[in-house]
Design a protein that fits this description.
The structure is a homodimer.
Chain A (H helix, E strand, L loop, with lengths): L3 E2 L2 E4 L13 E4 L3 E2 L1 H4 L4 E10 L4 H4 L19 E11 L9 E7 L3 E5 L7 E2 L19 H14 L7 E4 L5 H13 L3 E6 L2 H9 L4 E4 L5 H8 L4 E6 L4 H9 E9 L20 H5 L3 E4 L6 H18 L6 E5 L4 H9 L6 E5 L12
Parallel strand pairs in A: 10-11, 10-13, 11-12, 13-14, 14-15, 16-17
Antiparallel strand pairs in A: 1-4, 2-3, 5-6, 5-8, 5-17, 6-7, 7-9
Helix pairs in contact in A: 3-4, 3-9
Chain lengths: ~350, ~350
């Protein structure tokens, strides 16, 4: 095998406040890998198939202590995120050529990695190969799916049938799955907010009982119509004034799963929105709890893979993807995702061909 | 028995914003009770021994939906709160003359009440009579004690030995018990904030590892010194800027028991403090949960009575009381308590003589 040209997306520099511009993602093609000469014992040589662009990555682009994975990105080095990759060559026990893995990996088209467990690299469920697109393993069957499923399980449960749930950023990667689980698995009345009429239409199509475009409908009005008796479960993706409005509308014993607060990520501290009605947390016995999905894999990872695999193949939960072609466009894809340019899971297709295409029946 | 003159404290009117003045508590002596003529089957005739003045009552003085007990106080009628009373006469099975009960009762020196269970009236543990002052049954062995014990159990647990805990309003009725439980039962490092040097001295005496006077020491400085590595458990009694500072200092997986937010009770909505750093709830996986103690009695009431009775008689948890004499002074006692005039549990002694005095050994 001749040396291979590696395309990487490098993290240029920290951006503490404001939007992260597209040119902060630098395409680099300088690296070469010669698998035969470079691959050492205990290592595997991977080619990237899909990479995932996610909002949580914003936190790692700020020069600050991050509790996600312990640290920010390293300037001048490749970004890192959820990826699906195929083993091209292996000198590590337990990994064979042709197998497909997923995990947190650098944004490099080809790479040699240590195969040890600490990397969180694991093989995708073989029984699903050819049944679902491989991109699902960074979506509904990957981190966003695990986020939705485990957040409901660990923070929102116990959930009673008929409870009223609101999902913000409902047409995003996590929101779409949360809403479908709440509707089709838990039997809740589900309301979604999203940023365009197309997204609202999609939410209705997927079974949401109500959905509104927050750009065109005042949220107080939309929520009063959709949830006249208040809200029991709030899946929090946005923060700021939306959180304040929802707290006002919470029923006693409401649960707020604080998964993200995207409206606040780019703001300098002094411009962040001050939530004035936290007093209701006491009187209404609201539980608001933050989550980082990495905490739950050890306990729930296997159960998730089985359960969600079943939901997806049965059609109970539908995957919606927003695919960008080519690793060179990963920065653009991330920037667009951050302003809601995606509907459903934003993924970047890195390898041209899918080694396990889904057969039409 | 001749008709008895009843002294009641009536609730004058709703006060939505600002401090509730002392003259909103109206002493009334117009009612007469003739126990022989007035007492019907299923009823008991009680004389009040102690009544409790508590911050949560502020919520019921506002004309708004309250989730505490379902409603505000009724203008022109007696206020209501935690009380200890003695049965003078009974026409209800299960209650005998001379027995001591506690529960939510009107602020009337004498009263006839239905004895049914819905009132939440229950007999105080007979084995403790003469061993502890009866006032403890509205304090460390009553609602404030149950609040402290059950809030830690249901929201803060699991608690690891050596975790760092902060208690605000730590010299108040609930705070003093929370701090002692965290220190002497759970083995935490406990920090207390309070509003005077005398209170701070008391906290140290009771075993708090650190304590500061928030009037004279900037909270950021005091907390950085006392908890340089951050806070794991925060018992929230005050809200506002203190909550914001604590969120900033929370360690990952911190728990905030939202028991009260006294700094915000009197403020009109637009003047309430906006907490700007709730984003940390996500990244640090903070759990903030509100509590109303009434929710926990059915599940935990008996266990509390046994457990806390043991802690108190063993001296593991010490009761500190601030006693005002005479039901006529109940309004004044409440108003003073709201500005921190009390150290420990604020109670009003209604009957001149204690029927079960504690014997000195």
């Amino acid at each position: 095998m001749a040396p291979i040209e590696v395309t990487s997306i490098l993290f240029k520099e920290f951006v503490n406040d404001g939007k992260v511009p597209e040119d902060n993602f630098v395409v680099n093609k300088e690296q070469r890998i010669d698998p035969e000469a470079d691959l050492k014992d205990g290592q595997i040589f991977l080619r990237l198939l899909y990479l995932s662009v996610d909002p949580y990555m914003r936190t790692r682009m700020r020069k600050m202590e991050s509790y996600y994975l312990g640290s920010g990105f390293e300037p001048g080095k490749p970004l890192q995120g959820g990826c699906v990759a195929q083993v091209v060559a292996s000198k590590a026990p337990g990994f064979a050529e042709g197998e497909v893995v997923s995990g947190m990996l650098p944004w490099s088209s080809h790479q040699i990695v240590e195969a040890d467990a600490q990397k969180g690299l694991h093989k995708v469920e073989p029984s699903l190969l050819g049944k679902v697109p491989l991109s699902y393993f960074v979506g509904v069957l990957g981190m966003p799916g695990m986020t939705a499923w485990s957040g409901l399980k660990k923070i929102a449960e116990p959930i009673k049938e008929g409870e009223v749930a609101l999902v913000s950023a409902a047409a995003g990667a996590v929101g779409l799955i949360v809403g479908q689980l709440l509707k089709h698995v838990y039997g809740c009345k589900v309301i979604g907010s999203a940023g365009s009429n197309d997204k609202v239409a999609l939410l209705r199509e997927l079974g949401f009982d109500a959905a509104f475009n927050y750009h065109t409908t005042p949220k107080e009005q939309a929520l009063k119509e959709a949830a006249p008796d208040g809200i029991d479960i709030y899946w929090e993706n946005v923060g700021g004034p939306v959180l304040e409005t929802v707290i006002e509308m919470c029923r006693p014993h409401a649960r707020i799963v604080a998964c993200g607060m995207i409206s606040q990520y780019d703001l300098p501290d002094e411009e962040k929105y001050g939530v004035k009605n936290l007093f209701h947390v006491v009187t209404k016995r609201i539980k608001m709890q933050g989550m980082v999905v990495a905490d739950y894999y050890a306990e729930l990872g296997k159960e998730f893979a089985t359960t969600m695999g079943k939901y997806v193949t049965e059609g109970k939960v539908k995957a919606v993807e927003h695919v960008t072609e080519g690793i060179e466009n990963a920065g653009k894809a991330w920037v667009e995702m951050m302003v809601g340019g995606n509907t459903g899971k934003a993924v970047v297709k890195v390898a041209a061909e899918d080694p396990f295409p889904v057969k039409k029946e």
